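B., you asked whether I could sanity-check this one before it goes into the benchmark set. Here's the sequence:
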Amino acid sequence: MSDVFDKLTSKLDVVEEEQRGLAIAADVTRGDIDDDYEFSRKTLRALVKVGMDNLDGLSELCRQTEAPRAYEVLSRTVKDIGDVSDKLMQLQKAKKEVEKETGEKSAKGTTNNNVFIGSVTDLQKMLQKTDAIDGESHLIKSPEEINE
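And here's what the prediction gave me:
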């Protein structure tokens, strides 16, 4: 059975699921990510706005009718508005993770901890060269020269 499946797969040029997923992920561009984010954000914000607009009407209906079903619908609407607001925050986190994964935020920053590996003489020579580049001629003396 496996041989038949393998022969059919090779004849039909079937692409494995994993390979297709990788190809799709590679085709995603920065513009696609931004477009999808903006679309999702606008949609979620519109849903929250519509829910908030309908909340006043539902609460008035509950006061007038005092029907249990009306209160059930009102509580469900409040829960749904909260869920959509939570999804909006999750969307923000997801976008930050995608930006981090795609390397949009480069590692430009300040280096706080430098390590020099070499002898004291090598360090002095390096520092003398940088001083000469700056136009200053500060000579760094070795401990033997200081004692003389």
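One thing to flag: Residues 30-65 form the longest helix (36 residues). Otherwise nothing jumped out at me.
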